[in-house]
Amino acid sequence: MDRIRDIAKMIDHSILHPTFTDEDLRIQCEIAKKYRVATVCVKPYHARLADDFLDGSEVVVCSVIGFPHGNSTVDVKAAEIHQVIRDGAAEIDMVINIGKVVQGDWAYVERELHLLHYICHDRDTIVKVIFETDFLTRDDDKIRLCELCSAEEVEFVKTSTGYGFTKGTDGKYSTAGATEHDINLMRKHCSPSVQIKAAGGIRTLDQLLRFSDLGVTRIGATATESIMEEAKRRFSISL
After folding, report:
1. What is the mean pLDDT of the chain?
2. Known catalytic residue: 232?
């Protein structure tokens, strides 16, 4: 049972698709409660309703901020954080300003991190900083982000939103999501106190276990049900 519980508590159940309705949210929250995962990760306007749906359970609400491309101003991101915390969010997944990272405006990135983490820390709210690794082609940029997040003492760094689509030479869009290369880099260059969340393309128990071996303590997943059912079969434990 401990193994199953540990796996469940690695999962932020993602309920972020743009077409998801309030009824979809209710159904997905029931899945989250069934398996007793760590959080449901929801769109900001769904934070209050998710908190209602999860009332009495051990699952908490995580809301995304500046999602998915991090382009909101710092003030707007701050306002979003204040709103979702009022609505019941206990954790925040915040997308950095990707363009500022790409152009090397580290002073801006540092200011944004400091202000937004201060707000979360002041409200006893966990923050996860999303790098969106699909858009960052230089390891040096990812390393610098790890260093800034470590200096700021954020709780988590996170690979991806799952919506960081890049256009290929064939004109089609795809996303890599979490990769072993990026996880290894993040674990190497973040301080030990900073945890790592892998997200984007994680659909199987084997992927979860592999990332756990690499030092990941949380994953973002839409395939929670199939992951947990496979865990039950493999470990011969019934929830």
Report:
1. 95
2. no
